[in-house]
UniProtKB/TrEMBL annotation:
Belongs to the BMT2 family. Residues 1-30 are annotated as: Disordered. S-adenosyl-L-methionine binds at residues 119, 139. It comes from Penicillium alfredii. This is 25S rRNA adenine-N(1) methyltransferase. Its main location: nucleus.
Length: 283
């Protein structure tokens, strides 16, 4: 009898990202910023597909295109501009608005609320400036002191509760992961980094920000499917809001982890829809 095909383990984010490129950047308009970010995502998606297919020539060709566009550094410059105060894009302001009632009940003279910001671009965003928060910032390509250069998928698992967090921020991070299985693994990994020792007033939380198109215009993901995926991981949706481009969500961790398998299934057919998906595999 032929052995069953085992699902491939998702590659680390650092494995699927091309090398960074040092370059100087002129000021970018809002339109140019959006175009650069969109183009970078499309190239990364194509690169991940070529990598999975073992097409090294195609990978090299895409790397050359990414290099010509300024690489990861250009993408991060565009992302910073998109999140600048001038363009009203600091998503952590929404996060603070949502958790401020809980922070008012938190005794910061004893301890601060521990926050892990994955994909951090700045040490001066709203959550970083709040004295009640102790923010640990990580990113694959640190842009400034105070941001640890680290792949979240390689971060050592906590050895004790003091290394866990009350809140994890994934703001425009999950959509950067180039494959659906990797996105599911990232969400599963978040659970392992959340503390189980929080006051009732401040239960562990996950802050998630995604482009609206990932949910509203995907063939394989709907808002209900996202709710089902996170519910089986032990999360309850506490807050949600939309803008014309983004969806913001705050999920409370209930501890009721009951993993289910979610495959890539056609949920919303249409020629003009995208292929964004999240796959959950068994442990």
């Amino acid at each position: 009898m032929a052995p069953k095909n085992r699902p491939k383990r998702p590659q680390l984010m650092s494995r699927t990202r091309p090398p960074t490129v040092k370059s100087k950047h002129a000021a970018l308009s809002s339109k140019a910023t959006r175009h650069l970010i969109r183009s970078h995502h499309q190239l990364l998606k194509a690169r991940a597909q070529a990598l999975q297919a073992g097409d090294e020539a195609r990978v090299s060709s895409i790397d050359a295109q990414i290099h010509a566009n300024g690489g990861l550094e250009s993408y991060q410059v565009a992302s910073k501009l998109g999140q600048s105060l001038e363009r009203g894009g600091d998503s952590s302001k929404t996060l603070l608005d949502w958790i401020r009632p809980q922070l008012s009940q938190w005794d910061t003279t004893i301890s601060k609320l521990r926050v892990l910001e994955v994909g951090a671009l700045s040490t001066k965003n709203a959550c970083s400036m709040d004295p009640a928060l102790d923010v640990t910032r990580i990113d694959l390509n640190s842009q400034e002191p105070g941001i640890l250069k680290q792949d979240f998928m390689e971060r050592p698992l906590p050895s004790g509760d003091e290394e866990r967090f009350h809140l994890i921020s994934l703001s425009l991070v999950l959509n950067y992961v180039p494959d659906a299985t990797g996105r599911g693994e990232m969400l599963k990994r978040c659970v392992k980094f959340l503390t189980s020792n929080s006051p009732v007033s401040c239960v562990p939380r996950l802050f998630l920000v995604l482009p609206v198109a990932c949910i509203d215009n995907s063939r394989y993901l709907t808002e209900q499917r996202l709710l089902d995926i996170l519910a089986c991981l032990g999360f309850h949706l506490a807050q949600s809001k939309r803008t014309s481009k983004l969806i913001f969500q705050l999920w409370e961790y209930t501890g009721e982890y009951s993993l289910r398998v979610f495959k890539k299934e056609m949920l919303n057919p249409g020629k003009k829809r995208n292929n964004f998906a999240i796959i959950l595999q068994g442990d």
